[in-house]
Amino acid sequence: MSSQPAPLRVIVHGVSGRMGQEVLRALARTPDLLPVGGVHRRASADTLPLPEGRGVILLAPTLEALLGRVHAHVVVDFTTAEACLQAARVALGRGLHFVTGTTGLTQDHLGEMDRLARQHGVGVIVAPNFAVGAVLLIHLSRLVGRYFDYADVIEAHHEAKIDAPSGTALAIARALAEGRGSPFTRPTPEKEPLPGSRGADLHGVGIHALRMQGRLAHHEVILGTAGQTLSLRHDTISRECYIPGVLLALRRVHAYKGLVYGLDKVMGLP
């Protein structure tokens, strides 16, 4: 009788954050994924209890300090762009795979992570959104953008989100423009009593960002052409929606050498 393969050993970088806590809860009840450590920059203890009394993991204020105490295969990150890049440098340099949902990473950041991953023979998955429905919204935007002349994206998030517009809104706008093959028509008003009322502009796509209590994540695409409009919308009800995508990325990242951008590629969408 063949034995079960050993579980993948995972470190959660940003373990004290809302997404870090959600990921830790999921890992604690997933047999093939084993949480072994957490990084919290203000950590004052050496260990962190797992949810539901499932044991403890090691805790440290930096990834470098934690890796001196624990063996791992992959790091999953939900922090800030600066903290993410620092952690990626450490993880990839040690031959660990890296999965992140942190937004705000620049092309230079992505290029450096790709080079490091290829140099050390490991994989990186960067996903601006791990919600499968949001990924499908981006995919559908690429398919339908070619049939319309006007496009706007409205996104709404909780008041504590640090970036605007969201990484997902930017990904939607880029997908729309890629599908169309040219910028959308963007009318300029003759008068604009309040500057900025038309929102931001990316390839002719208007982007409007709302920040308020009572919202988690909402994205809506509104497309227009002669005599008709089309609306596509995705609402995130709770952070649980991100977990299937995160777990999929953790299970697949070892198959890559270098950086993969977007959960759509991990899902096998064309």
Per-chain topology:
Elements (H helix, E strand, L loop, with lengths): L7 E6 L4 H11 L4 E7 L7 E3 L6 E5 L2 H5 L6 E4 L3 H13 L3 E4 L6 H14 L2 E4 L5 H13 L5 E8 L9 H14 L19 E3 L2 E7 L5 E9 L2 E9 L6 H10 L5 E4 L1 H5 L3
Give a description of the structure:
The protein has 8 helices and 13 strands. The strands form 2 sheets. The chain has an 8-stranded mixed beta sheet with strand order 3-4-2-1-5-6-7-13, with helices on both faces. A 5-stranded mixed beta sheet has the order 9-10-8-11-12, with helices on one face. Helix 3 (81-93) links the parallel strand 5 (74-77) and strand 6. By secondary structure, the protein is α/β, with parallel strands linked by helices. The longest helix is centred in the middle third of the chain and has 14 residues, at 107-120. The model has no long low-confidence stretch (mean pLDDT 94).
Strand content range? 25-35%
Which structural class is indicated by helix and strand composition?
A: alpha/beta
Please work out how many helical segments DSSP would assign.
Answer: 8
What is the radius of gyration computed over CA atoms, rounded to a whole number of angstroms?
Answer: 20 Å
Main beta sheet strand tally, sense and closure: 8 strands, mixed
- End-to-end separation in angstroms reads 39 Å
SSE order, as H and E?
A: EHEEEHEHEHEHEHEEEEHEH
Helix content: 25-40%
- Which consecutive residue ranges, at least 5 long each, have pLDDT under 50? none
* β-strand number: 13
Determine the oligomeric state from the structure.
Answer: single chain
C-alpha geometry = elongated
Strand order of the largest sheet: 3-4-2-1-5-6-7-13
Mean pLDDT: 94
